[in-house]
Amino acid sequence: MSLKILTVDDSKTIRMIVKKAFRPYDCELLEGADGVEGLVLATQEKPDLIVLDITMPVMNGIEMLTKLKSEPGLKNIPVIMLTAESGQDNVMQIVKMGVKDYMVKPFKGEQLIDRVNNILKLEPKKTEEAAAADDLSGKYFSVDGDIQVLVLQEKATRQVAAQVEVYLQSKIKDMIKSGINKFILNLSKVPEINMSLIKVIMSVIQNCRKAKFSIRVVGTTDLGNELKQFQETSGISIDNTVEEAKTALS
Amino acid sequence: MNEINSLDLKGFAINAVNSVFDMMLSMEVEISDADSQVVINGNRIVGSVGFAGDVMGNIRIHVGDDFARLMTAAMLDMELEEIDGEEVSDVIGELSNMIGGDLKSRLCDSGFPCQLSIPSVTSGSDFKIESRDWMKYECFAFCHQQHSALVEVFIKSGG
Hints:
Oligomer: heterodimer
Number of helices of chain B: 4
Shape of chain A: elongated
CATH superfamily of the largest domain in chain A: STAS domain
Helix content of chain B: 25-40%
Strand order of the largest sheet of chain A: 2-1-3-4-5
């Protein structure tokens, strides 16, 4: 059964970041823009977890939390508070209010998921869409001997980048389980560089570094030269062929 | 008053900008020595957050339209052509909130407890924001690729 997650934040930006973080998981996301909306949704929907901002108009997060804790039917719902303020007094106040955890902005979606996993068991999404996604993952990922290969053969749109990001997390888990620790990102057929591609490259590299995998990037000389013009990718060395990359990994 | 003047307000704000841009936008920014010499031409957007308590003040981030759209795309993981004005405004407000929140925390930890306001956002091409009677004022610019932005911080005693 899907978990219900309620995100209460006056910033649509933060609500989008929270929704995106939960996208790979079997969750129903509910949104409130202030404490009043949040309380109504909490009462109606009885969410499994609330991600609650502090500074909001109409009713702030502290007031909403106080009211939640005073309602017998709602007081046990775990709450993760989001705050832009990391000062000691602020943190102490939050902790004393009985929240399960808190996060100081700025934060990354993955960090939020790590915290949520300490409270709830998040299951990967298993819908028709996800099943189709599993089929789609074969479009990008393959295993060549003891090397995980990710090939991009088209323009990296936002949708492509989002798909790759979701599959990447599960592929990395699979790699760890099966003892594979080499990765090739093959960009030799990518027609153009855009921000989505840069994000894919950075995400793959950062995830590989985090998992202590060796990684090589394959692409044309032109692509290598273009990547050098972006601050984020200027330090990446490019192999011109998959064979070169394999040799470098061996 | 001396205690306020001894605060490293500029250092607090620079750390906050670096931290927020790195974490939320995966964007490296370079702090410029040009300070207020940086001029943002054309349409610009200003995110502002106030704080009030033992110190009162305000932090403002002035960003050109193109840079604001780039920041929005990075924050929301969207393509530039998909972004609308409401999203730009929301992102600039939220970034101001995070940068202001970090600064406020540093002020509280330095012995100046204060509360943070909700962010406000102003945009246009022909406006000027004036602040007067501040005890301490800092201004610096930062850039990413060819884009520049300006940060202003004002504080005075709230007692």
